[in-house]
Amino acid sequence: MNNGFDFPGSYIPLLAVLAVSTLLLTLAHQFLIRRAEGHAHLARHLSMLLLTVAAVIAALLALPISDSSRGDLFGLFGLVITGVFALSSTTFVANAMAGFMLRAVESFKLGDFVQVNEHFGRVTERGLFHTEIQSEDRDLITLPNLYLTTHPVKVVRASGTVISCQLSLGYDVPYYEVEPLLEQAALDAGLEDPFIQLTKLGDHAVSYKAAGFCAEVKQMLTLKTRLHRAILDRLHGAGIEILSPTVMAQRRLDDEKKLVAPPRQPVVEIESRVPERGIFDKAERVEKINALQQELSDLRELVKTGIATGGSEEEHAARRHQAEQRIRELENIIRLASENGDHN
What we know:
alpha+beta, Alpha-Beta Plaits, 4 domains, 5-stranded antiparallel beta sheet, 3-stranded antiparallel beta sheet, 8 strands, 53% helix, elongated
């Protein structure tokens, strides 16, 4: 029968195509994973998608059927692809388009601190359909790219940010006594260029905002805690209650009673474990791998285009050998770091 199957010899081309396609897809997957950098997930996903579609088309061409039947199968395949894209356009395609948009805008990169609504953390992964951040609790949060493009994204600048603390004090406490204490507390916490704001004159209390510049954004959590402790030490040390007078409506206190904790004497900073080291471990690893990959790319380009001019041939050869040795070291470091990260 001309439009039927010629069993079993006619299956040999199909089986050969399936075997070769499976082998090529496996090798391509391994190669793309090994070569993929922190910012190359988008290209890897697209490459695997295109290769898979090509493998399906090759299998259809190798089927031992007539041309008319093959045309019908191609038509059905086209309808399936069209239907899949149509049905998933609100999620799949929308997230893919959002991923392209985020790549074009480049508002944040791997390792940056970002906040989207209630989600705050460091960027650990940027894919075609999602972005992963590591929260203050060390947990990994996966956010669809469409969510990032439809909500404001706050990015902490790598050059530094402002750390602040808001509190309320009674009207019986002069602001000219409070401001120097809050400014000194910001300095005690390790902040630069401190400034104090009176943000609100409420019905029962004055609202203050103590703030300062933090040059090392990786220590934001630590500096926030230090600022809070320093404010407690300075205000309680001066006998000032960090308490709105409305507390009198909650429970009766003696007129001479003050809700003040005894300050430390002398006022010194207590050294404690830096929490960021354990919280943002994946973000730290991704950022370091990204920096190593950038150095590796620069060295490869340097070796490809030629070492800087100047000096003798022996010096050129020595510099080239040193660069090639560093390239091998970086490749080994990146491979080990990526393998360790996959097992965590």
